[in-house]
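User: Structure with pyridoxal-5'-phosphate, tokens only please.
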Amino acid sequence: MPAHKIYLSPPHMTGLEERLVAEAFATNWISPVGPHVDAFEREFAAVVGAPHAAALSSGTAALHLALRLVGVQPGDNVFVSTLTFIASVSPIIYLGGTPVFIDSEPRSWNMDPTLLAAALDTHARAGKLPRAVVVVHLYGQSADLDPILATCERYGVAVVEDAAEALGATYHGRAPGTFGRVGIYSFNGNKIITSGGGGMLVSKDEELVAHARKLATQARDPAPHYQHSEIGYNYRLSNVLAAIGRGQLRVLGDRVAARRRNFAFYVDALGELAGLAFMPQAPWGLATRWLTCLTIDPAEFGADREEVRQALEAAGIEARPVWKPMHLQPALAHLDRFGGWVAEDLFGNGLCLPSGSSLAAPDLERVVDVIRRTPRRNRAAATALLAQ
Ligand SMILES: *Cc1c(COP(=O)(O)O)cnc(C)c1O
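Assistant:
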């Protein structure tokens, strides 16, 4: 019997979600309004320590609203991490803005604060400061927010945090996503907790969050008839999905612990091998290890990233290259950037291993076993042994 497929980061339900969804059915709140939506916002805000939160249909929708609410308009520049998922960037383009890409620093893989300062200086001199900086917290780890916030404050530029991958992480004890003017999170199926699709926008600014809720429900004015003074979107989270999200939120701590245990297992089993280097945990906080990522030096390890990934694939194990930088994307390659080599290197050699919180020990053993057997010298030794 072939072994079951091991996925990168599958959903992991507790059973509680079904009870809460049943409650939504029983009370007939099957729409983007309802008690679960309100409760999810309250409970989420409490968990991350944000004063206000709006539940939305996706992290991408949340970022779209965040950028609109900090005033991004056609023709504006918006700085954004180059090493990220496309959803950090597309909303800039929805609004007619122009993304400018900023490279990573090696110690966190996130936006390099020194390079950001240089980029802001260059743009200030040219009289084209960006409207906002989108700081991404990648793979469960916070960017170095203190210097980024200080620099942006000096230039009067709004900080929008894309914390879609970093729910449960900390930066000096607080949740990334709650430092900037607006922060966003995602509950897509592969994230650390999921609502089966959804997102959250948080801010200290109560009016901004209220405006986000209004824009997310077609921007209806408070009138009994349908009246609109501005154009909105259909971006509100459904009450049924909010029920799933509430159930998941209660086990966030367990999910973080499980992902960190996966990481520790991989480090323990593979850390001694020459040519493998795990994504570092920067000194400023806790990384959730949403995904366990490592880089592979092909000369030292004896196999490159693609050989390892393909060997895993052949064994029914899903692994993925680290995000392809935005400045290398065919749709975006014409845009300006500052640096890019750190991100290119991480993309060239970086691999994300199966990291789900429901992975069992035999699954992790299977992954480790395939990786150990991938270097050419090991394959040669195995072939020699067979030929004897
Ligand atoms: C998943 C993700 C998003 C988008 O979230 P969706 O809920 O899938 O729209 C945005 N940014 C990053 C970095 C992500 O990983």
